[in-house]
From TrEMBL:
Protein name: PaaI family thioesterase
Keywords: Hydrolase
Keyword Cytoplasm: no
SUPFAM superfamilies: Thioesterase/thiol ester dehydrase-isomerase
Keyword hit for Hydrolase: yes
CDD domains the UniProt entry points to: PaaI_thioesterase
EC assignment: 3.1.2.-
Thioesterase domain boundaries: 63-151
Superkingdom per UniProt: Bacteria
One Gene Ontology term of the molecular function aspect: hydrolase activity
Amino acid sequence: MTGDRNEPLAQLKARRDMALGALVNGMPYAAWLGIRFDRRGDELTATLPFAERLIGNPMLPALHGGATAAFLETTAIVELTWAAMWGDLEAGRVAPDPERPETLPRLPKTIDFSVDYLRSGLARDAYARARVVRQGRRYASVHVEAWQDNRARLFAQATGHFLMPRG
């Protein structure tokens, strides 16, 4: 039985990983950018692996601002969706399956998204974490921070407001 307290740990972890994989794989742009998510319990860390196609200024070289913004927005949407479905996932009421698109959660719609570029994103992997600031039935607010080599030295941060999907 899914969601049972006696469910084997390996089975629980596999269900969580399958749900996260289905969520991320349902976002083609995230796949094109190469964004991956590392899950530790209910905490997600996004990774944007460096690729030459992400360079906006070859003189520095620096990540393109659009790639940075897309990375931050994708991180916010995945975190918000993950937080919204966590309770149902843990109780076994939902089980997203990439082979069955009707089981995938509907994603929140961006109302606005404001990015602060704090320094140039260098030609290396980038990481981001999002925090849901407020989540209601119809509206949510999310804050995202991105860094590269040092978690304390952010290169970008963003705040987004989202319209939550209806039931």
